[in-house]
Write a structure and sequence with these properties.
Blueprint: H1 16-19, H2 41-55, E1 59-60, E2 63-64, H3 68-87, H4 95-118, H5 120-123, E3 131-132, E4 150-151, H6 161-171, H7 174-184, H8 191-215, H9 220-243, H10 255-264, H11 272-296, H12 309-329, H13 339-344, H14 362-367, H15 371-374, H16 379-389, H17 407-424, H18 431-456, H19 461-470, H20 480-492, H21 496-518, H22 524-533, H23 539-547
Parallel strand pairs: 3-4
Antiparallel strand pairs: 1-2
Helix pairs in contact: 2-3, 2-4, 3-4, 4-23, 6-9, 7-9, 8-9, 8-20, 11-18, 17-18, 17-21, 18-19, 18-20, 18-21, 19-20, 21-23
Length: 558
Amino acid sequence: MTVRFAPTPVAPRLLPLLFAGTLAGCGSEPAPPAAAEPGTHADLVALFEEWREFERPEFRDGIPDYSAAAMAGQQAELPAWRARLDALAPESWPVAEQIDWHLMRAEMNGLDFDHRVRRPWARDPGFYVQIFEAQSDVPAHEGPVMHGFIDLWTYDYPLSEADAAELAERIGTVPGVLAQAKGNLAASNARDLWLGGFRYFRNQAADLIAFGERVGGTSAALDAAVEAAHAATVDFREFLEAEADSKTGPSGIGADNYTWAMRHVHLLPWSWEQIVTIMERELARSHSSMRLEENRNRALPELERIASAEEFDRRLNESVDRYLEFLVREEVQSIEDYMDPALRAVNGTFQPLENPDDLRNFFSEVNYRDPDAFRPHMHHWIELAAMRDAPHLSPVRAVPSLSNIYAFRSEGLATGVEEMFMHLGLLEGSPRSRELTWIMLAQRAARAISGLHLHGGDFDMEEAVAYAMKWTPRGWLTEGALVRGEQSLYLRQPGYGTSYVIGKIQIEQLLAEVAVLEGEDFSVKDFFDRFYAAGVIPITLARWEMTGEKDPVLDLRP
């Protein structure tokens, strides 16, 4: 039998002038004094393992209990867990061990935030999606997911008899999960989250059909389970559609709650208002930089899109070769054996157009013009391979954090190295490709601003979609449905939409700070190797490990 359960996740103050006063007036109390007899890191690891079991709801007949009574019971126990964590009093521990403590505290704050504010099991139909056909490029799933999810990509095909039996049992829980979901969501009035559920369950229905065709005839039990799950999925989507007109309330969490989540869950020192300002600055910087690049390149021909499957395969593989050669030549980071296969595995396949004047989705428009411009973003897959083949020695950091706490680090790195590596010379010899880097940054800043204003109550969904499309250069963001899907994710997981650009900025600031501290001894390669070695954790924590400077946000308590 193969290993296939996606593990239920068990597993800088940046530049001083920018950070001065950012936490003033936040209304939080300082950390309590250390206990007389502090615990040990081994105690923390043991508590972490217990915590991850507690965070999972109780399962009955394979179905997790997200009922109001069960969730109220879990919420009532949270203060005792926080007290146990505080009692470890880690202030005297080595910094690396204190970082693990803060990471666990952030997870507890995340669950607290879910109970008080987000309540995905009671507000968000998309929470009840179980079937995931493909792997995400981040350490776990993007956005909140229920326990009991089924990652089909973790199984070997053709299925063994044992795997087919296991999948039949697990997929067989879908009807029961969705029956419970109807009751749990009865009081939901979050209109945009409700409407977003249409897309999520259309996708689940399509995935079940495709999976059924792929494994049909493997076993009668699996065939029956897939058929029943598909029928229940279609029924649930029809239930959402029938109830949609009665859903009239907001889906955003408000600026104050957003700020709380950034500071206490994601360990980010900025408020909602500050993040809006930063995103607006990055949007302007990316647009102006793109226009200056265009002026510089005005006599050069436009980049031609890849036009055939043969050209696609050749250029994507050549891009991997150039990228790895670049990392070695420019002394950017250490090279590991898993990097080459990890990158080639996600090259994808050529997608023809019926009309050559049509546009593909946004990132394909970039990739089909120059794969080198988008290649740094594929660093995601190098990191996933590293987590698999060379996991962090700490059990707390070796597994994905809950509540998408990894997002600013994961998405921020993948976005940040696009521009950083452009400056290091990755696109040397192709000046027009530099325009693509600025276009991608503009798109990410625009959609982040839309998401921020959805949470702040300044935009409705259509205003958010229109803003993101307007401010994405060259009209390449043409699919309103795609934008709604992105904004739905950002509503479901506050902070995700900004994580790409805010995380990038945090890494840039950390690099600047380390360079100032180290002076002539600074090395780009050493910086990135040390940064990666810290693990996929909030950048404020990586900064503490790399510089010894503890950000004031880490001393805040709810």
